[in-house]
Amino acid sequence: MEWEIVMGLEVHTELATKTKIFCGCSTEFGGEPNTHVCEICSGQPGTLPLLNRRVVEFAVRTGLATNCEITRKTKFDRKNYFYPDLPKAYQISQLYLPICRNGCIEVKGQDGNPKKIGIHEIHMEEDAGKLVHDEFADCTLVDYNRCGVPLLEIVSEPDFRSADEVVEYLEKLRAILQFTGVSDCKMQEGSLRADVNLSVRPKGQAEFGTRTEMKNLNSFHAIARAIEYESRRQIDLLEDGETVVQETRRWDDNKGISYAMRSKEDAQDYKYFPEPDLPPIEISDAYIEKVKAEMPELPEAKKRRYQEALGLSEYDTSILTSDLAFVRLFEATEKLCQSPKDAANWIMGEVMKLLNDSGTLPEDMTLSPEKLAAVINMVKSGKINRGTGKKVLEKVFSEDVDPETYVKENNLAQITDLSALRPVLEEVIAANEKSVSEYKGGKTQAMGYIMGQAMRALKGKAPAQEVQKLLHEMLDN
Amino acid sequence: MQIDKTLVMYLEKLGRIELSEEQRAACEKDLQSILDYIDTLNELDTEGVEPASHSFPVANVVREDVVTNTARADVILANAPDSREGCFAVPKTVE
Question: How far apart are CA A469 and CA A450, in angstroms?
């Protein structure tokens, strides 16, 4: 039987605000336990939340960038549950009137045509604290630094049919969140987290199958693997005549398997009700216009501009706009070296290779546009050749050396004074008598060897064409 | 809506409390009278009236995104029944 995979995503992203959603505590990542905590975010009795205006602005920005309708009168609700990661025993979230609804992001569908993935809603809420389970002391330690950090939960429609669609949607969503300045989207720090709801059904069937929810997916690679694993597991169960149990499963990326966390049989009843401590938020046309006017350039607009104004290809622009770190490096380098094509080629070639080889994430890259432009300019002006340029960039990348000083100190500049070549070549000719006489005797291939020796003696610092020309001049008569 | 013993016991479970049989019976009676009162309210015609979740007609109460709090974990932990290594210590929870 042919099966169809049906998926929906719940993406949580931590917002790049300076402070938490309901108090003036810092949102900075790391820090000693409970040092970014106050009476409000630790849920002490008698305290009241006060909403951070940036959170609303970021939510509206995200909604507009993902083609959502903005809810003009929005409010918060309480989601009640007992777990020590939330000291109030409830999370302030949005259920009835989420701030954004009915949006979409376009991906490439399985048939190669554009496909719209619906966004059901985007709502604002607070993050929970971090629990450390102490194996020996028989207790759990709680750090509330993350508790109250603002989150957006972006809930898609069940529109995904393949892992490729899921990954492309997440890449686009991440780029939107980064480009709009809403989140830094560092998956390893938990500022972008995705849960996948997945079910399978016989192809052609209208009803959905029973779904499971997968958590702890810490990279796009892990998401693709987990989807592969979970769809296979469900299909195997159904083909063996068994049933899929609705449950939450945790993905273990090291073992490449998922296991059940808690069964939904013990159905969670969150007893949602309107949050009485926060007045509603009314969003005016003027406010939406203001957010629109201040919206940073989005990935798709950048792509178009790079093609139209800078003459780059569609392929180049889609790679450059895949990550904000590349965009920042490209835009500054391009201005400094006055050549968009060179800047694009060096970033997509050498820089990406260096990132890849060293396992560095683009956002952690220390390479400055000034230094990259210096390397490009030296190659462009002929001061060093391309091969040397690559070696210099490698040094800049790994040790942050100054490219111009490095070229000078290591004597890497090209020999531009051609009269300096002749004495070196004379030495090469004298040292390779055998090849020289073979060449003179008509064995033209011997020139290749002599040429190699010459370039070696010159340490590759002379233009090969000039060296060859000069050698012919010296040997051909 | 009818309140019965099963529902009271479900509410106990959600609220992480345990009632005696006596308290359970009293709770059943009290909850029923509260709900009956709400049923009376439901008789009102509220067609076209926006649901209110707040007593005062205020909206858009917000603050600027500026850090105002400094680190003082000792003060925050002072009221905790148990704390270790700068953290609140709670009975072990297992996922």
Answer: 13
